[in-house]
Structure formats: C-alpha cells, structure tokens
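Per your request, structure below.
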C-alpha cells in the first residue's frame, strides 16, 4: 500500500471537535453576543490559530457552524451552530447519552432504596431496561427527548 492509499490522519478528535466545542460554548454564552470572533475561539479551543482556521473551514463545509467572512473568504466570526453541533458538543442531549443516564439512575435507585421491597422493584426495572438493550433504549429516549408519546389504543 502506498502513502496515497493510506487513510488520512484523524482530524475530528484532535482538531475539529475541540474547535466545535469551543464555538458552541462561546455561541451559547451571552457575553459574546452569540457570535464570537475567530480570535476568541482559538484560545478557548487550546489550539493554534492555523488549526482553528482549518477546523472552522471543515466545520462550515459540514454544516455544523455558520460563519461571517470577509470578501476574500477569510473567516472572521462564528454566527451560529446547527442542532447537531449542539448535540456533538454535549450542550443538548443525545438518545444514547440519555439512555445511559437512565440506566445509571435505575441502578442508583436500586442500590439506595430504603426497603428490600423497593430495592427489588428498582432492580426489576433496571434489569428490564438492560434487557431492552441500548439500540431500542436509544429509540425510546429519542422519542422522549423529541416530545413524542405514542397514543393509547
């Protein structure tokens, strides 16, 4: 395999995600007016400006962030983020994350219930949730996060 056939090095975890998290955090803070300058994002991400610029272009192309540019196309500031960017940055819940939180809550309630009867009920609930599995559990949490509740028949 030649170097042209080799996969490109990862940029998501080392560059793009830290910049996305910094942008989302700054866009969400009222003190920046919801539109931080590139110069504010660089120190907030902990990355050098050239990396922030490269990440900003990638994030813009992917539709995660909206930017204001000069006539020559240089990114000046970030003016918005997508709903998916908010989820990836951890600002909004994900179905998988909420399912994990539910399982943690059920286990904690089972462990800390004041009586054996209540402990047994919480354990049964926890065991049933674990048996449902993470895929169906995430679908359930997706419906709950989105506010969808099936109608009774």
């Amino acid at each position: 395999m030649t170097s042209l056939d080799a996969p490109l090095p990862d940029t998501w975890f080392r560059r793009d995600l830290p910049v996305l998290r910094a942008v989302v955090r700054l866009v969400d803070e009222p003190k920046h007016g919801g539109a931080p300058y590139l110069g504010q994002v660089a120190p907030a991400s902990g990355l050098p400006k050239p990396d922030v610029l490269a990440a900003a272009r990638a994030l813009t192309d992917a539709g995660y962030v909206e930017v204001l540019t000069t006539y020559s196309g240089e990114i000046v500031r970030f003016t918005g983020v997508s709903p998916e960017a908010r989820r990836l940055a951890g600002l909004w819940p994900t179905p998988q994350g909420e399912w994990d939180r539910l399982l943690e809550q059920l286990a904690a309630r089972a462990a800390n219930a004041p009586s054996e009867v209540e402990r047994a009920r919480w354990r049964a609930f926890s065991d049933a949730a674990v048996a449902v599995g993470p895929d169906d559990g995430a679908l359930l949490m997706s419906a709950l996060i989105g506010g969808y509740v099936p109608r009774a028949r």
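The mean pLDDT is 90.

Regards,
D.
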